[in-house]
Amino acid sequence: xxxxxxxxxxxxxxxxxxxxxxxxxxxxxxxxxxxxxxxxxxxxxxxxxxxxxxxxxxxxxxxxxxxxxxxxxxxxxxxxxxxxxxxxxxxxxxxxxxxxxxxxxxxxxxxxxxxxxxxxxxxxxxxxxxxxxxxxxxxxxxxxxxxxxxxxxxxxxxxxxxxxxxxxxxxxxxxxxxxxxxxxxxxxxxxxxxxxxxxxxxxxxxxxxxxxxxxxxxxxxxxxxxxxxxxxxxxxxxxxxxxxxxxxxxxxxx
Amino acid sequence: xxxxxxxxxxxxxxxxxxxxxxxxxxxxxxxxxxxxxxxxxxxxxxxxxxxxxxxxxxxxxxxxxxxxxxxxxxxxxxxxxxxxxxxxxxxxxxxxxxxxxxxxxxxxxxxxxxxxxxxxxxxxxxxxxxxxxxxxxxxxxxxxxxxxxxxxxxxxxxxxxxxxxxxxxxxxxxxxxxxxxxxxxxxxxxxxxxxxxxxxxxxxxxxxxxxxxxxxxxxxxxxxxxxxxxxxxxxxxxxxxxxxxxxxxxxxxxxxxxxxxxxxxxxxxx
Amino acid sequence: xxxxxxxxxxxxxxxxxxxxxxxxxxxxxxxxxxxxxxxxxxxxxxxxxxxxxxxxxxxxxxxxxxxxxxxxxxxxxxxxxxxxxxxxxxxxxxxxxxxxxxxxxxxxxxxxxxxxxxxxxxxxxxxxxxxxxxxxxxxxxxxxxxxxxxxxxxxxxxxx
Lengths: 254, 270, 160
What we know:
The complex is a heterotrimer of chains A (254), B (270) and C (160). Chain A is mostly helical and 254 residues long. Chain A has helices at 2-36, 38-48, 53-75, 84-122, 125-131, 136-174, 179-189, 192-218, 224-253. In chain A, helix 3 packs parallel to helix 6 (136-174), helix 4 (84-122) crosses helix 7 (179-189) and helix 4 (84-122) packs parallel to helix 8. The relative contact order of chain A is 0.16. Chain B has 270 residues and is an alpha/beta fold. Chain B has a domain at 1-85 and 163-170 and 193-270: P-loop containing nucleotide triphosphate hydrolases (Rossmann fold, 3-Layer(aba) Sandwich). Chain B is 37% helix and 23% strand. Chain B has ten helices and ten strands. By secondary structure, chain C is of the alpha/beta class. Chain C has helices at 2-28, 139-149, and strands spanning 40-47, 58-61, 64-75, 80-88, 99-104, 111-116, 129-130, 132-134. An eight-stranded mixed sheet of chain C has the order 7-1-4-3-2-6-5-8, with no helix packed on it. The termini of chain C are far apart. Chains in contact: A-B, A-C.
């Protein structure tokens, strides 16, 4: 029993170490890839980012809307419905925007990355590249990683902006909060540091989500079942890691 | 690579996957200019052998020499230079799925040479012509049949004019016509380009027609070797079973199981 | 080539939207624009208790924002809080005997510094210190006093 726990712990430690080394190698190749293979990175920004715009926008609109609704119905009891903007703005910019975007990214783009790389591995495409003296880490892993790292902060900004629009629609257009009060209160309450907190978070989450997706794909068991398991693990582990890091960053900043 | 008689030599190679030993004291030489077949029952590590030769894997002990050099000593750039002189055909072709047939064949050229677009186009179409698929240049890998995908992969393998061509199970899952085409290509490319070929397969009949020399691998060792005609007269029972395709022999038909009487009737009366 | 075009258009649209959204968030949602005058002068004031006053809190006079708190520190010799704030150079005729108090916007709102004009002929300038200050009124202190001695007109924390 105790022995089992110890073995599990050692296994975890080994996996974590291997992933850290993988991360360092990705970083090591990043400058060269950005210079010589920018087209591949560009294509991955399209794949991970541009193709996620619609889902990000739809989710942002509704999440913002529901925040506006909740904030209004609670604040109304204190006759403080003018501060709906503060509530929705704080929640969206500092927490919900970065976190939900990272989770949506893991579900939409992370799984696609993991299964794509896993499938390339299962069909010997990665081995074939090695045999053609092309390092698959540079050709496959780094561009996908960078595509995700670039996309997530931009997606987060889009999500948050659309979310603010959604809460504006609900609070101002639907429930009749004064438009001036809504935005003035929001602007007075929010500082640049609050916005930067959201941006720092989105950058961190982008690195986490992209790294995990590429890592899981790269290390999947090269069978149909293995690839399936890799995509599931990508979503689960990304979600856990993002929420843990969210707590740590918030605790560190406050 | 120099044109010495022996191109590749494996000396006392040991290799295990986890606790399972794959090779023990494996010795094997491949002569340049010939088509060498490596045969053996499934699961004897034929693909592993190729990975050792290309250093996708490294042996636990023993040495692998390519053109006289111990490849374990190669740094990453020397290793990549060596691989540029090798072409490998994977079991299912391993074409890159996100680019067309033309771009797949052009891929090594674009990565390793600074040839102009016109020259790349000429070289690629020439290689596709050699495998009879010049007309398929614009197709995507998903639009190809299994045999066609393998021929495209062959064109890609020879596009850098390698000195050594390695085929991993080139006949698996192909119809008789495609098998014949691939067998013919293996022989033709070897002779026309003056290169060395290694073919890993368990298709005794097909490979017998093209190979100059064959190795049969079983139980982590070379069980037999020789010209195809010699092998057919090999006295070893295991080699006979394999070459003739007999159901039972040294490689047992039954997987290890408890005593049959015991399992069906229950414990034996004392 | 049609495919390349789609990819380039899609990525372009994505980058444009993303950067536009970042721009919106950094410029339109923060209060930074309220008071971002480059030309200011610095004034300090000492308080017994700053309550929940925070850096970037507004400094106002007659209800108009004329400056911002830049720093709050604690002087361990005098055992007092030292609040540093900047005032827009446009307002350079504030008497140097003006009174600074820490006020609360509404019952539960955030705290800010209110200046009340004095009568001195000399004006505050860069580096001056406001001598007359009134600390933050802590709700819990008032309630505490009220419970012990009943309603009282006693002001909490008068300084100097």
